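Collaborator request, handled under Task 6.
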Amino acid sequence: MADHITVGAGSAPAPTVFFLSDSTGITAETLGNTLLTQFPGQRLERRTIPFITTVEQAREVVALIDRVADSGSLPVIFSTAVGQDIRAILSRSRGQFFDLFGAHIGQLEQTLGAQANGKPGQAHGVGDAVRYQSRMAAVEYAIEHDDGQSLRALERAELILIAPSRCGKTPTTMYLALQHGILAANFPLVEEDFDTMTLPKPLLPFANKCFGLTSQPVRLSQIRQERRPGSNYASLNQCTFELRNAEDMYRANNIPYVNSASMSVEEISATVLQRMRLHH
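Structure tokens returned to the collaborator:
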């Protein structure tokens, strides 16, 4: 069970949002949080409860939600539970219940002319063994080729992310690997790379696979200060220099790029997939 709490001093308790699932809870979190983005600034306490697989567990969860309801504001519940008995019990809790699975499955059955199998864990399980194995192989590739650690088998890469340090290369390549099975390497740009404004030598044969990230100097400086406080590496002047030169390099070599300063890893990844036309 994961808790993420936002509390304002001296204010009323934040409403509690429950993400419920008979599997990992990833889908409930993703869909629920997507809806909640339409309410920016709303203080919320988020609680994820995965693997609700028995009637007894479902009843315990309902009792928990009802206690929260008794203590203050109405809980909000996003559920992707598949089993009908589990869903029926969860829906009786004293909260606003959004059934993200049951609300649409009947329509799909009618449209497709087929019966849903009613098995939990299909979205993020290992049911599609080939796809699962390709994602795991992509994760291994991303780890080996993180931050330019290895140049082995760069020809296999579908994508090479390049950027100055701390612009979001590693989380983006890992997300693309885990979620989409993309073979992604990432390579850091350092001050010496800006002397000629050509791509680093190991990347020259693979320029068509390169995608650049940049950031805002102030934002990058803040991130680097957390890693090396008071260093030249983290100074605003150094960050400004590296970002300006990186963008010049991208333009000089026709490398597409995006400013990652105010983007989530999901948004960066979606942008990269679209602009590089990468689809699995």
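The cover message to the collaborator said: "The chain is about 40% helix and 15% strand. The beta strands are 2-5, 16-20, 45-49, 76-79, 96-99, 159-164, 184-189, 210-214, 257-259. Please let us know whether this matches your experimental observations."
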